[in-house]
Design brief:
Blueprint: H1 6-15, H2 33-47, H3 51-63, H4 71-86, E1 90-103, E2 107-113, E3 117-119, E4 121-123, E5 135-142, H5 145-150, E6 159-162, H6 169-184, E7 190-194, E8 220-223, H7 225-236, E9 242-247, E10 250-264, E11 269-279, H8 289-308, E12 315-322, H9 330-338, E13 346-351, E14 358-365, H10 368-378, E15 388-390, H11 399-405, E16 409-415, H12 418-421, H13 434-453
Parallel strand pairs: 5-6, 6-7, 7-8, 11-12, 11-13, 13-16, 14-15
Antiparallel strand pairs: 1-10, 2-3, 2-9, 4-8, 5-9, 10-12, 14-16
Helix pairs in contact: 2-13, 3-8, 3-13, 8-13, 9-11
The structure holds zinc ion (ZN).
């Protein structure tokens, strides 16, 4: 190889300009130098084990789904406390929360006429039930609230189906949440909603409804994408379809539950707290592995990894497994109420409730200064491609505290089939890849560790 004189070198390099403009690679900032080694160790340790996946599998296999008020949830909470202690976490305890206790009971939906035949159905959480004999009525199918209002003279005495194809969760979920009252106030006797999720092999999605105070409460349930399309076709052909819906759903008195808390106490500023977690309750179908067992285990794993590597940051890192996110939000509210005096010392809160598939980074809500910091820290995750920071972060359980005290909020962001799976009988561990949950845990661990360790507080 010829020795290049300086001028020749410049000319050679000029022929191959770096592709800097269309490949945005941010150089890792200087201030992160002390965190490069611990970050690499956290990522390495996470990827070297399937501990998070095994723990999530155990949770789902052993306790099943974990609806508020169920003995399963309470048994899982007791297990989590014992396991956190075995991991060597500190200050492990529960914080009592009264939760609503809704039970599904038996349920069925059938085409009563012209030719009787069963359909797949899944009642919506917090729905009232039908009379013991069920409700039989003619079907009215609409594709929007506008179509419902246009058909308002024909709603009375009918079962209304909102047949709205899934676009985004935010856009489509309002038919599940608000549809029952919108139909009920016009005289409908029951409401059905096309499952809020992408088409998934005739799989229905449950989820909470929200009755408007003072308006009639009618039973409400989800049907599958396939069955919704079929009922639409039958009605479009001019067929008069009669449906029969039976639901035993009802509320029992509020039940005792708890948030689970574990910590690594800060070595210099233990009173300043970085909180991470997920919600431990789930809907009463599947095993709640994606929603949100995975978020609980991955955040908890972040503390286990720090403990394992003897990384004790300057500030306290606290994992919280919130109860009752799905049908009440009482766990997140109770955390706010019970920690009100301490919220000013909450440096950051992170919730993972979007699945633990391939991590891409975090959503962040806070100041621009905070955003710049978090973007810097994320460069430590470039090696696992989890270095993206998107415009907003947060979560249902951290929401009350974050809003109260203006706490910087993060959420784990992933690429995966969350909305296909969540709230369905298909939400089980086999949909989760051990390496992806390991990397999700690593991403959370690195972000959390640096925020808890860096000399100045995240602002
Ligand atoms: Zn969730």
């Amino acid at each position: 190889m010829p020795i290049l004189r300086p001028l020749a070198l410049v000319l050679l390099l000029a022929q191959f300009p770096p592709p800097a403009l269309d490949v945005p690679k941010r150089a890792a900032p200087e201030w992160l130098a002390p965190y490069r080694d611990p970050a690499a160790r956290l990522i390495g340790e996470a990827a070297a084990t399937d501990a998070a996946w095994q723990r999530l599998a155990y949770l789902g296999d052993t306790y099943g789904h974990r609806l508020s008020g169920s003995p399963n949830l309470e048994a899982a909470i007791r297990w989590a406390v014992e396991e956190m202690k075995r991991d060597g976490l500190e200050n492990v305890h529960t914080e009592a929360v009264k939760v609503p206790h809704w039970v599904r009971g038996r349920e069925s939906l059938e085409i009563a006429g012209p030719i009787p035949q069963p359909l797949v159905v899944l009642g919506l959480g917090n729905s009232v039930g039908t009379p013991a004999a069920g409700i039989e009525a003619e079907l009215l199918v609409v594709r929007s609230f506008e179509e419902l209002d246009a058909a308002k003279d024909r709603v009375k005495g009918r079962i209304v189906l909102f047949n709205v194809p899934f676009t985004t969760y935010g856009d489509t979920v309002r038919f599940r949440a608000l549809g029952p009252s919108r139909a009920g106030v016009l005289g409908a006797v029951a409401m059905l909603v096309r499952a809020v999720g992408p088409a998934g092999l005739r799989t229905p999605h449950t989820g909470a409804l929200s009755y408007v105070d003072g308006q009639p409460q009618i039973p409400a349930a989800a049907v599958t994408t396939e069955d919704a399309a079929r009922l639409q076709r039958m009605v479009d052909r001019g067929t008069t379809v009669r449906l029969k819906l039976l639901m035993e759903a009802r509320f029992l008195p509020d039940a005792d539950s708890a948030n689970v808390v574990g910590e690594i106490r800060g070595r210099e500023r233990p009173d300043e707290v970085v909180v991470i977690g997920g919600h431990f309750d789930s809907w009463d179908v599947g095993t709640g592995s994606t929603d949100d067992g995975g978020g609980c285990i991955a955040t908890w794993e972040a503390l286990r990894l720090m403990k394992k590597l003897n990384l004790r940051p300057r500030r306290t890192v606290r994992v919280v497994l919130w109860t009752n996110e799905e049908n009440g939000g009482r766990g997140g509210q109770a955390y706010h109420d019970q920690h009100l005096a301490e919220l000013a010392n909450h440096v950051m809160m992170l919730e993972s409730d979007g699945g633990v598939f391939r991590p891409t980074g975090f959503g962040f809500s806070g100041t621009e200064t905070g955003r710049a910091r978090v973007r810097d820290i994320a460069t430590l995750l470039a090696g696992i491609h989890a270095d993206g920071i998107s415009p907003s972060g947060g979560g249902a359980d951290i929401g009350p505290s974050v809003q109260q005290a203006g706490i910087p909020a993060l959420s784990l962001e992933v690429e995966g089939n969350y909305f296909l799976l969540h709230h369905t009988p298909a939400d089980t561990i086999d949909k989760i890849d051990p390496l992806e949950i390991a990397r999700s845990s690593a991403a959370i661990a690195v972000m959390t560790y640096v925020i808890a360790e860096m000399p100045e507080r995240l602002r």
